[in-house]
Amino acid sequence: MEFDLTWVLLGFPIAFTLGWIASRLDLRQLRIENRQAPKAYFRGLNFLLNEQQDQAIDAFIEAVQNDPDTSELHFALGNLFRRRGEYDRAVRVHEHLIARGDLTQPERDRAQHALALDFLKAGLLDRAETALRKLEGTSYEEEARLALLAIYERSRDWPQATAIASKLDSHSHGSFSGRQAHYLCEQASALLAGGDLDTAADMLEDAGRMAPASARPLIDLAKLQYQRGQHQEALRTLVRLQQTAPHALPLAANLLVNIAQQKELLTPVLELLQAHYRQAPSIDVLEAIVRLDADATAARQWYVAHLEHEASLIAAARWISGEKLGSAEQRTLVQRSLDKATKPLMRYRCAACGFEATQHFWHCPGCQAWDSYPAKRIEEL
Predict the structure, then answer these.
(1) What is the pLDDT of residue 33?
(2) How far lies 180's CA from each of 130, 141, 175, 204, in Å?
(3) What pTM was estimated for this model as a whole?
(4) How many whole angstroms separate alpha carbon 175 and alpha carbon 199?
(5) Which residues of 348-371 are buried (b: 16+ CB within 10 A; e: fewer)?
């Protein structure tokens, strides 16, 4: 049988025509998909700008389906899920990104950082810690360390917090010596509760050397010295406080009153309190002076002197409580009303978040800020 070249010659044009038609169909489909992806993306962006997050998510999902290789769409979708509180969906999106083999290293680091934020927002601190640890040596290292520091502070893991703060301090990201001093004080407090007074004292001394201008190490050390019966040493520590952080002395006013119960220390304690009051009048210092003054009548004149320089409902209420105004029943009613009115004024307020409390905090329970509570009552701010 002879091979007929006629069919071959006829087949070439047919094959070429069919190939051309197929390529045109593929190009047309590609154009349609490329048009659909940008349209879905811009539609989602428009919904997002109008704060229509449900519609934005639907549009971004459509865009991702049309163009699954675009990492930016995945990042946008994952961030939207996180903002919506749908942390499980955000985690899936970012884990899918990390698993992709075509992702560049900067994009992979970005996805790892986004995944860590998902875990943080979801409150999964152990998984967040693991994700943040993987960002060492990347452009997100500093942010990761700050987030780790917040995790360790929330979990009260002070040794780990100290290690992270030391790294941040050594890389010139600001001074973290004040925080590290607080960490030592927190550990000393735990040791005190366990009865290990010697180690606690050493830690407080270290904290004082680490942050010489910090008030807490000196106040906590003075409390420990008083607890051990070292009243003279406690007074010397508080004299140092007056020299290095005088604004915080009102926080030690009650402790000074207790120290002054040793009669030989009454005069130096009163002198310290009065010297501070003359420089910076304070309700807590004022009340400590009144409690220690042997002459009750003369002591109450301190309230009057305070009112001459500064209007104070607290000082007025304290002065009235010792006056014989009207009958005993009337005095009780008036005093009860005044005590109720002054109670909110005796609180401390966080300067960072406004959280109010009847006691002073070194670490705000509301916003987790350190040293955000002034040593003054609300009325004095």
Answers:
(1) 46
(2) 23, 20, 10, 11
(3) 0.78
(4) 26
(5) bbbeeeebeeeebbbbbeeeebbb
